[in-house]
């Protein structure tokens, strides 16, 4: 027997369904019917198919939004870099080299420690309204450590990304091209079965555009989708390369050139903006306005990692994007939900149209606007995943 649940008494429902109002597909005084974990119907509570429901719940005027889709995290790691953050806030610059200290701690951790940490993070994300999230490897950087990072990540999400090309590990410091050989050879062989995506940190101090092209091409040949970290610390060729190779996502884009915006507009590559990074490294925020005005598709993601952005809060990212990146509240909410789904090339999440997974968040607030209006306040009353 199918199981049908009706949530009624919703003060404000965001669906992204063009059948409803405006760009958010907004319905006031709304209800949502889920059947077997999928959205069956949304609309005004007055016309809800009450008779079809096995269970009825009352949201008592609360706002309901699609679950957040966090398209960029690095949650497989051990160790702590609070001291690095503290020094940065006292004037030290951020350096990609800090990644190596997390690599050492991650290699030294047992599977059990990494698994516990991942499951704690998965709960932390869920409690804050995130219902789909991507997880990258990249703190192992040996065949065995990258393989186990992805194997463990797969236990908490289907959206796993092989990031063996995060930085060149210390043992390969003077022979980076040999490390690239390892990444495209035995490491990719071991990791591809546990990954949906491949990513490269294309940046001075990490991997250059030629190395990036080689690694991404090898991943594509193995059937992995492409993602790129580009132009985080300075301008570079990574964004153009991501577009050229048809990457699903190019993330950071803190330092944008005219030719980058031209390449992105009209492409299918989604830009992942990661305001937690600029917040925690004191780099300037990326020019979201320019991207949006050029018609580029934009996602907001946490980039949760121990170095550059140790937040898992999508609400925080929305608040910063609205306050400091000139995104409107609807644009930021869209980027944190539907935009994340587009970045992961998923059409079953990030919205509440009929047929979507019944992944949604009941807010302890009358409107989605409160996500930006009440920064830092925990507003997630309930996270529903697959109707449960
Ligand atoms: O996305 N840019 C590269 N990787 C991470 C930072 C990792 C770290 O500092 O540990 C990022 O910002
Ligand atoms: Fe990242």
From TrEMBL:
<feature type="binding site">
    <location>
        <position position="229"/>
    </location>
    <ligand>
        <name>Zn(2+)</name>
    </ligand>
</feature>
<feature type="binding site">
    <location>
        <position position="303"/>
    </location>
    <ligand>
        <name>Fe(3+)</name>
    </ligand>
</feature>
<feature type="binding site">
    <location>
        <position position="74"/>
    </location>
    <ligand>
        <name>Fe(3+)</name>
    </ligand>
</feature>
<keyword id="KW-0479">Metal-binding</keyword>
<feature type="binding site">
    <location>
        <position position="139"/>
    </location>
    <ligand>
        <name>4-imidazolone-5-propanoate</name>
    </ligand>
</feature>
<dbReference type="InterPro" id="IPR006680">
    <property type="entry name" value="Amidohydro-rel"/>
</dbReference>
<dbReference type="Pfam" id="PF01979">
    <property type="entry name" value="Amidohydro_1"/>
</dbReference>
<feature type="binding site">
    <location>
        <position position="307"/>
    </location>
    <ligand>
        <name>N-formimidoyl-L-glutamate</name>
    </ligand>
</feature>
<keyword id="KW-0963">Cytoplasm</keyword>
<protein>
    <recommendedName>
        <fullName>Imidazolonepropionase</fullName>
        <ecNumber>3.5.2.7</ecNumber>
    </recommendedName>
</protein>
<feature type="binding site">
    <location>
        <position position="139"/>
    </location>
    <ligand>
        <name>N-formimidoyl-L-glutamate</name>
    </ligand>
</feature>
<comment type="pathway">
    <text>Amino-acid degradation; L-histidine degradation into L-glutamate; N-formimidoyl-L-glutamate from L-histidine: step 3/3.</text>
</comment>
<comment type="similarity">
    <text>Belongs to the metallo-dependent hydrolases superfamily. HutI family.</text>
</comment>
<dbReference type="GO" id="GO:0019556">
    <property type="term" value="P:L-histidine catabolic process to glutamate and formamide"/>
</dbReference>
<dbReference type="GO" id="GO:0050480">
    <property type="term" value="F:imidazolonepropionase activity"/>
</dbReference>
<feature type="binding site">
    <location>
        <position position="308"/>
    </location>
    <ligand>
        <name>4-imidazolone-5-propanoate</name>
    </ligand>
</feature>
<feature type="binding site">
    <location>
        <position position="232"/>
    </location>
    <ligand>
        <name>4-imidazolone-5-propanoate</name>
    </ligand>
</feature>
<dbReference type="GO" id="GO:0005506">
    <property type="term" value="F:iron ion binding"/>
</dbReference>
<feature type="binding site">
    <location>
        <position position="74"/>
    </location>
    <ligand>
        <name>Zn(2+)</name>
    </ligand>
</feature>
<dbReference type="GO" id="GO:0008270">
    <property type="term" value="F:zinc ion binding"/>
</dbReference>
<keyword id="KW-0862">Zinc</keyword>
<feature type="binding site">
    <location>
        <position position="72"/>
    </location>
    <ligand>
        <name>Zn(2+)</name>
    </ligand>
</feature>
<feature type="binding site">
    <location>
        <position position="72"/>
    </location>
    <ligand>
        <name>Fe(3+)</name>
    </ligand>
</feature>
<dbReference type="InterPro" id="IPR032466">
    <property type="entry name" value="Metal_Hydrolase"/>
</dbReference>
<dbReference type="GO" id="GO:0005737">
    <property type="term" value="C:cytoplasm"/>
</dbReference>
<dbReference type="GO" id="GO:0019557">
    <property type="term" value="P:L-histidine catabolic process to glutamate and formate"/>
</dbReference>
<feature type="binding site">
    <location>
        <position position="229"/>
    </location>
    <ligand>
        <name>Fe(3+)</name>
    </ligand>
</feature>
<feature type="binding site">
    <location>
        <position position="166"/>
    </location>
    <ligand>
        <name>4-imidazolone-5-propanoate</name>
    </ligand>
</feature>
<feature type="domain" description="Amidohydrolase-related">
    <location>
        <begin position="64"/>
        <end position="372"/>
    </location>
</feature>
<keyword id="KW-0378">Hydrolase</keyword>
<keyword id="KW-0369">Histidine metabolism</keyword>
<feature type="binding site">
    <location>
        <position position="305"/>
    </location>
    <ligand>
        <name>N-formimidoyl-L-glutamate</name>
    </ligand>
</feature>
<dbReference type="InterPro" id="IPR011059">
    <property type="entry name" value="Metal-dep_hydrolase_composite"/>
</dbReference>
<feature type="binding site">
    <location>
        <position position="303"/>
    </location>
    <ligand>
        <name>Zn(2+)</name>
    </ligand>
</feature>
<keyword id="KW-0408">Iron</keyword>
<dbReference type="InterPro" id="IPR005920">
    <property type="entry name" value="HutI"/>
</dbReference>
<comment type="function">
    <text>Catalyzes the hydrolytic cleavage of the carbon-nitrogen bond in imidazolone-5-propanoate to yield N-formimidoyl-L-glutamate. It is the third step in the universal histidine degradation pathway.</text>
</comment>
<feature type="binding site">
    <location>
        <position position="81"/>
    </location>
    <ligand>
        <name>4-imidazolone-5-propanoate</name>
    </ligand>
</feature>
């Amino acid at each position: 027997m199918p199981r049908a649940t009706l949530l009624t008494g919703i003060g404000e429902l965001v669906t992204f369904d063009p059948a409803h109002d405006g760009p958010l597909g907004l319905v006031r005084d709304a209800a949502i019917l889920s059947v077997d974990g999928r959205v069956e119907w949304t609309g005004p509570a007055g016309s809800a198919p009450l008779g079809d429901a096995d269970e009825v719940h009352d949201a008592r005027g609360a706002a309901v939004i699609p679950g957040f889709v966090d398209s960029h995290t690095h949650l497989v790691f051990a160790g702590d870099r609070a001291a690095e953050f503290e020094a940065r806030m006292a004037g030290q610059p951020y350096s990609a080299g800090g990644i190596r200290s997390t690599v050492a701690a991650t290699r030294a951790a047992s599977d059990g420690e990494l698994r516990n940490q991942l499951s704690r993070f998965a709960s932390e994300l869920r409690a804050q309204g995130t219902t789909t999230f991507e997880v990258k490897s990249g703190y192992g950087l040996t065949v065995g450590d990258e393989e186990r990072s992805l194997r463990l990540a797969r236990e908490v999400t289907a959206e796993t990304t092989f990031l063996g090309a995060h930085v060149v590990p210390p043992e390969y410091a003077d022979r980076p091209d040999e490390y690239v050989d390892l990444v495209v050879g035995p490491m990719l062989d071991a990791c591809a079965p546990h990954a949906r995506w491949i990513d490269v940190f294309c940046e001075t101090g990490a991997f250059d555009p030629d190395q990036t092209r080689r690694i991404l091409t090898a991943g594509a040949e193995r059937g992995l989708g492409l993602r790129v970290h580009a132009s985080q610390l300075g301008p570079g060729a990574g964004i153009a390369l991501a577009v050229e190779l048809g990457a699903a996502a190019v993330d950071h884009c803190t330092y944008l050139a005219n030719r980058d915006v031209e390449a992105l507009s009209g492409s299918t590559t989604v830009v992942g903006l990661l305001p937690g990074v600029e917040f925690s490294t004191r780099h300037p925020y990326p020019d979201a306005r320019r991207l949006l005005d050029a018609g580029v598709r934009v996602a907001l993601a946490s980039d949760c990692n121990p170095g550059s952005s140790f937040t898992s809060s999508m609400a925080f990212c929305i608040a910063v994007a609205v306050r400091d990146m000139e995104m409107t509240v609807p644009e930021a909410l869209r980027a944190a939900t539907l935009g994340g789904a587009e970045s992961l090339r998923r059409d079953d999440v990030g919205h509440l149209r009929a047929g979507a997974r019944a992944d949604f968040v009941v807010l302890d607030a009358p409107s989605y606007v409160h996500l930006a209006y009440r920064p830092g306040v925990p507003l997630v009353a309930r996270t529903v995943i697959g109707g449960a």
